[in-house]
Amino acid sequence: MSTFLYKIGKTAYNKPWHFIIAWVAILGIVGALIGINGIHTSSEMKIKGTEAQKVLDQLAKELPEASGGQASVVFTAPQGERLDTPERIAAVMKSINDVYGIDYVINPAEIAAAAGATATDAAQSGAAAGGAQDTQDAQGANTDQTSAAQQAPYGPLIVDGNPVPGVMISSDGNVALFQFQFTVQQMSLPQEVIDSVVDDVTAVEQANLGIKALPSDTLVGKPAIGATEGIGIVVAAVVLFITLGSVVAAGLPLVTALLGVGISVGGAYSLSKFIPMTDITPALAMMVGLAVGIDYSLFIVNRQRRMIMDQGLSAREAASRAVGTAGSAVFFAGLTVIIALCGMVVMNIDFLTAMALVAAASVFINVLVALTLLPALLGLVGERICSDKARQKNKEQEKVARQGTAHRWANGVVKRRWLVILGVIVILGTAAIPAADMKLGMPSGDTANLDTAARQSYDAISAGFGEGFNSPLLLVAEPANSSDKVTPELLGKLVQDIQQHDDVAVVSPMGINQTGDIGIISVIPKSGPTDEATNNLVQELRDHDSSISQNNKVTLGVTGFTAINIDMSAKLAEVFPIYIGIILILSLIILLLVFRSIIVPVKATIGFLLSILATFGVTTAVFQWGWLHDLFGFDTGGPLLSFMPIMVSGILYGLAMDYQVFLVSSMREAYVHGHKGTSSVIDGYKQASRVVVAAAVIMVSVFAGFILTEDIMLKQIGFALTIGILIDAFFVRMALVPAIMAVFGDKAWGMPKWLDRILPNLDVEGDKLIAELNKSTSAKDNKDIKAKPSRAH
Question: At residue 508, what are phi and psi to the nearest 5 degrees?
Fold first, then answer.
């Protein structure tokens, strides 16, 4: 591998424009494809096979008009005033009618008229459930729930003697809730439809009547990638300059990383017409691509400069050797990240698969860019990569390098190895304690920032109508015996039984399909979308052995936005241990091949487990418990993003192994070259620690930039990766690894002879390459000596 990469590096250095033009052409093709195909992403995150998704798919087939997503908007009047004045009602009604006129939005009055029902029937159905389906079969079956609704602190909005479909108003007249239904789930809606809805309802504020329109969290926009991510790039540039000591050298990793990200993220967008992907997928690819792209180029440029200044090589030869040696480590480090990400495919969750593959493609492209474009750019720079001033400064620093910070730290860790091991375990073990209380979910209005429309809408609904109106459920009732039918009487009795549940606020029949195979019921819980009580309610309604199902001889399916999120979180929590097991096994195999050691892979895997547990512990304390929430720009703690643990584990594992490869490969190189015992640990640490620390700081800077975004998904992922890199790089790799290596000494590199024979030698450190180069150089020198004329006479 190292010999092959050496040849690639030399070719790229000698013919830089061939490689530069090729990569620029690829970027141009990607841009052209985006122009042709456009950008098609959505917020859809569904998992096939979950109970809620099965019911939704069934509804889409049996009763399409009932399978669409629901949304809501709250209209509020100033404190102490009423909305139902003639002027305000006129303004509100205009917005409502405009929304009902939008494509993809169901108008309950039109549906009711087409079905032969009255406007009143449609209004009752719409007001309670946020939509209107065929209700003629359910008339006369809702006496009890109507009576209950009359006693509630809210009721339908009456205009000109008729209820307004889909609108309720609080008893004090201060808040009105407008619930409506789409023909498809929100995740499948074109963004322009959501924008039109928001524009139409917020237009009421232009009437200057003191009305405020608050769209719910289901109408939020796409996550934005804004200027905050640029802060991380600026910090990375400063770190590169400090590490490499040259503006030219520092600029190369930034250029290659930005081009790699441009191609990978642009490529994802260009294929989004054919491959469904969520809004967060390209942002995640950018996050990972920037971090690894900068780091991988840094490792190669740093190795080239060290060879120039320490060994006196020409820039051409040093660049070729750097690609062959450090490039080998980059290749296997990148391969580790790619394998960890692709491991998510095994779980067969579509949106996670797309995220993983796009992020893996971003890493792959950045590895190729570092191994081909970077040496080409080094060829253009030539000997200027190390100025005369830098070479002179290096000679002066060599005299004190032996007693430098890295040497003193490594020596101190080696001497106090047991104290360091115990200290790291205690610190990270303590940090991991909150992870035992980790709860998974999806972002909702109750955890949005207080100054957002989503949070204000959630709070207004909770105050005026009850928290459960933020978490409506849709039930599908089927006869337990396939020969039976759902009748209006059965549907009415079912509604009455469900109404008796302690956590149910309102139950409304929504209709029966034409064949009588299924009945539709809307249920409003008393609890919120992320409350444990709502989760329990969903599970109890689904229980085939429950009194509700048994007494009515039906099976109940539960769906809706809230139920979908509950099922998604449960499924992801279920597969998370499986995924961790997969990547731990992969870790042992890959590191066994790279380091040809038993102890090193086991130690690295244990270190990763400590890192990931501590990462989730700190993330739970901050985002779920709300510790230091003001510092990180959010107001209310809540469940952690359901797919965050899996995604962060995959990315963090790969990046942690990057540091493991670069740090421990230097220790092995020192061992192979004659340093024995703790001497190899200290020497290897001294050689690699500076660049590993710089790489970690760069990754932390890039990821930390995403903490400043408004989108809570990117904020949580950015924070988890930031704290994960800090923990893994500085506690595990910089402290725990050298301490454990010192404990085992030369035994750390031991391997059974039978296993050593069957394992391929990957030569990550480039020993074979260096030996071949030295051999060819020696042969050339001998040839030159023989060719000289004898002066013996």
Answer: -135, 130
Distance CA 597, CA 531 (A): 49
Position 715: which residue type? Answer: K
Cα(773)–Cα(107) distance, integer angstroms: 77
Phi, psi of 170 (to 5 degrees): -70, 160
Q: What does the alpha-carbon distance between residue 404 and residue 216 come to, in Å, rounded to a whole number?
A: 58
Helices (H), 524-620: 532-542, 547-552, 561-595, 599-619
DSSP assignment of 503-532: TEEEEEEEEE-TTSS-EEEEEEESS-TT-H
Residues 289, 157 within the same domain: no
Element holding 167 (H helix, E strand): strand 162-170
| 672, 573: one domain | yes
> How many CA atoms lie within 13 Å of 715's alpha carbon, on the beta-carbon side?
21
Alpha carbon distance 498, 541 (integer Å): 8
Structure tokens at 313: 């090589």
647 and 707 co-located in one domain: yes
Half-sphere exposure of 38 (CA within 13 A, CB side): 3
For the chain, what percentages of helix, strand and coil (3-state, to nearest 5) are there?
A: 70, 10, 25
For β-strands 640-641 and 440-441, DSSP reports them as: parallel
Helix axes of 315-342 and 350-368: crossing angle, nearest 10 degrees:
170
Closest listed residue to residue 379, CA positions, set 12, 757, 41: 12
Cα–Cα distance, 782 to 784 (Å, whole number): 5
Here the tokens at position 727 are 């923990």
Report which of 274, 320, 280 is spatially closest to residue 300, judged by C-alpha positions.
320
- For residue 605, the Cα-to-chain-centroid distance in whole angstroms is 23
List all residues 6 or more positions away from 482 whose beta carbon is below 8 Å from its beta carbon: none
Number of domains in the chain: 2
Instruction: Determine how many CB atoms are found less than 10 A away from the CB of residue 208.
Output: 7
Statement: residue 228 has pLDDT above 70: no
Which residue in the block uniquely carries the two structure tokens 């790089």?
729
Helical packing angle, 374-381 and 16-37, nearest 10° = 130
Number of helical H runs and strand E runs in the chain: 29, 11
Q: Nearest 5°: phi and psi at 545?
A: -95, 5
Question: Which residues constitute the domain of residue 408?
Answer: 2-38+224-437+566-768
Q: Which residue has the higher pLDDT, 569 or 41?
A: 569
**How many of the other CB atoms lie within 10 Å of CB of 449?**
15
* Cα 332 to Cα 345, 732, 787, distances in angstroms: 20, 20, 43
Residues of the chain with pLDDT > 70, as a percent, come to 85
* Shared domain check, 511 and 425: no
| Residues 589 and 459 placed together within one structural domain of the fold | no
pLDDT in tens, 493-546: 999 999 999 899 888 888 788 888 888 888 999 998 888 899 999 999 999 888
* pLDDT tens-digit readout, 428-452: 999 999 999 998 888 777 888 888 8
Domain assignment present for residue 606? The answer is: yes
780 lies in some domain:
no
> What are the distances in angstroms from CA 95 to CA 68, 89, 99, 647?
21, 10, 6, 41
